């Protein structure tokens, strides 16, 4: 018998596991980071363990069901085709990042800096970060790689360091939002059941105007600096090829596995003959890249199991009833999806986790309000990137400050985060004017 063939009744208490997770994770993060001064406390808390506690709370609810029945419900949630696809893509994407490595990302930035006027260097940092993060699929990785270049550009040119670092962070969030191999894109598309190319096209209409406006603001700020020359280190132009292949293949709508495998093959074919790395080093890097996805995969599995129980116990029905009361019509439904994932991101400081947690509820909201899967996925990813891009305790901000050697603080950078602010404005314009009008 299908344990979920009957629609569950509303039960707000079924949402308790989510509350437990948020209280434990956010509470410990605040206590350790701001109370005890532990650096990057939010990212040292074992999020998998906290989710296991939340899942245990879900298992202890609803005594009417035997534990074996609850296991069957969890198995249905974890065994969903979209969840399995997401996990496999995470693994292959990790291998790709392991193969391409640091040198490829730096080559992209140095190439763009070398073909543009020195006075536009900050704008180039933004564009380079957009390209690298779109190709790599990671905002944190992009910030780690490009921030040292931003510091160097600031030192030799006189451009404001907060402006340089803020531009890198903005570009990193642009790519994290749009990349075909970003874990946020993978999670958003698979939880909403849409193709990546469809989500990209819907998302691009929001992100591109924000990026163009950001570029204009940066150029206006940079134009009066009078910088004439910047020294560019040597780099290997061939290292751009894997990223370009992935970007072109993704935009063309090719199967994501084929695109990633082509990028992996191209990266290996370039680094091995040139002697950049040896065979064993390359294999080790591939393994490290895949292993780096372990936590994300485990979170996906645990959240899928937890959400299956919450849905079965009536938690999603209660959440939908609340959203129906608070948000009305075309605009309200879309704003509800955005604010839902935004609230999760503020609490977890992790946009992928926020999407995985909000995804099943957003799916229900979308069906209720007639929101297409590609639009729902776009809203989830975009709003999560808006909030993740500006919170001072997010990984992106902490890594940026750390990589800059502590020469700039989070609160100095925040006024220069033009892209997340303009992306939020673009989201609101889209929701108020363009969303859902005659779209299929």
Give a description of the structure.
The chain is 74% helix and 0% strand. It has 20 helices and no strands. It has helices spanning 16-35, 47-60, 67-78, 81-114, 121-136, 139-157, 161-178, 183-192, 196-222, 241-251, 256-271, 279-291, 294-312, 315-326, 329-348, 351-369, 373-388, 395-403, 410-413, 418-434. α8 (183-192) packs antiparallel against α17, α15 (329-348) packs antiparallel against α16 (351-369) and α15 (329-348) crosses α17 (373-388). The longest helix is centred in the N-terminal third of the chain and has 34 residues, at 81-114. The two termini are 35 Å apart.
List the helices and strands and how they pair.
Elements (H helix, E strand, L loop, with lengths): L15 H20 L11 H14 L6 H12 L2 H34 L6 H16 L2 H19 L3 H18 L4 H10 L3 H27 L18 H11 L4 H16 L7 H13 L2 H19 L2 H12 L2 H20 L2 H19 L3 H16 L6 H9 L6 H4 L4 H17 L6
Q: How do you describe this structure in short?
A:
By secondary structure, the chain is an all-alpha fold.
What labels would you give this structure?
single chain, 440 residues, mainly alpha, 20 helices, 74% helix, disordered N terminus
Query: How can the largest sheet be summarized?
Result: none
Shape: globular
* Helix-residue proportion: over 70%
The counted number of beta strands is: 0
Report the radius of gyration as a whole number of Å: 22 Å
Helix/strand/pairing class, anyone?
mainly alpha
**Approximately what portion of the residues adopt beta-strand conformation?**
under 5%
Low-confidence stretches: 1-5
User: What string, H for helix and E for strand, traces the elements in order?
Assistant: HHHHHHHHHHHHHHHHHHHH
Measured between the Cα atoms of the first and last residue, the distance is: 35 Å
Give the mean pLDDT. Answer: 81
Number of helices: 20
């Amino acid at each position: 018998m299908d344990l979920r063939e009957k629609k569950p009744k509303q039960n707000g208490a079924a949402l308790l596991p989510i509350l437990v997770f948020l209280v434990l994770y956010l509470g410990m993060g605040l206590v350790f980071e701001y109370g005890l001064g532990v650096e990057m406390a939010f990212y040292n808390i074992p999020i998998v363990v906290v989710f296991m506690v939340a899942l245990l709370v879900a298992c202890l609810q609803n005594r009417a069901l035997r534990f074996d029945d609850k296991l069957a419900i969890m198995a249905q949630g974890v065994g969903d085709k979209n969840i399995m696809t997401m996990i496999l893509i995470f693994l292959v994407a990790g291998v790709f990042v392991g193969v391409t490595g640091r040198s490829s990302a730096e080559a992209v930035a140095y190439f763009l800096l070398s073909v543009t006027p020195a006075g536009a260097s900050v704008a180039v940092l933004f564009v380079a970060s957009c390209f690298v993060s779109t190709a790599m699929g990671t905002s944190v990785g992009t910030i780690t790689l490009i921030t040292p270049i931003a510091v160097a550009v600031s030192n030799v040119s006189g451009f404001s360091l907060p402006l340089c670092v803020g531009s890198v962070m903005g570009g990193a969030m642009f790519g994290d939002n749009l990349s075909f191999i970003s874990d946020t894109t993978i999670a958003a598309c698979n939880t909403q059941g849409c193709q990546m190319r469809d989500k990209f096209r819907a998302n691009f209409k929001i992100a591109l105007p924000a990026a163009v406006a950001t570029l204009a603001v940066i150029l206006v700020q940079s134009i009066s600096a009078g910088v004439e020359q910047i020294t560019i280190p040597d780099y290997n132009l061939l290292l751009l090829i894997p990223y370009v292949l992935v970007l072109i293949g993704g935009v063309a709508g090719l199967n994501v596995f084929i695109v990633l495998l082509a990028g992996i093959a191209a990266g290996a074919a370039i680094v091995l003959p040139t002697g950049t790395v040896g065979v064993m080093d390359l294999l080790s890097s591939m393994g490290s890249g895949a292993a780096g996805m372990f936590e994300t995969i485990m979170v996906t599995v645990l959240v899928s199991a937890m959400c299956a129980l919450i849905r079965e116990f009536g938690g999603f029905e209660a959440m939908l009833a609340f959203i129906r009361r608070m948000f009305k019509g075309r605009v309200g439904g879309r704003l509800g999806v955005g604010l839902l994932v935004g609230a999760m991101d503020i609490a977890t400081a992790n946009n992928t986790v926020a999407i995985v947690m909000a995804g099943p509820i957003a799916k229900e909201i979308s069906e209720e309000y007639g929101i297409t899967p590609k639009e729902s996925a776009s809203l989830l990813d975009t709003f999560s990137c808006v909030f993740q891009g500006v919170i001072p305790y997010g990984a992106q901000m902490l890594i940026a400050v750390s990589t800059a050697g502590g020469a700039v603080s989070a609160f100095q950078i925040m006024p220069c985060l033009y892209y997340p602010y303009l992306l939020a404005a673009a989201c609101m314009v889209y929701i108020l004017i363009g969303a859902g009008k005659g779209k299929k």
